[in-house]
Amino acid sequence: MGSSHYRSIMGSMEKKDFKRRGYLINLDLIEYRRAWDFQREIVAAKLKSDLPDILILLEHNPVITLGRRGNRQHIRASPEALTAEGINIYHVERGGEVTYHGPGQIVGYPILNLRNLRRDVSWYVFNLEEILVRTLMDFGIKGTRNRLNRGVWVRNSKIGSIGVAITRWVTYHGFSLNVSPNMNHYSLITPCGLEGIEVTSLKELLGREPDHHRVKDSISRHFQQVFDLELVRMDMEDLKMTLVMPHPAHGKVPGA
Question: Cα angle at 68 between 62 and 69, to 5 degrees?
Answer without folding.
Answer: 95
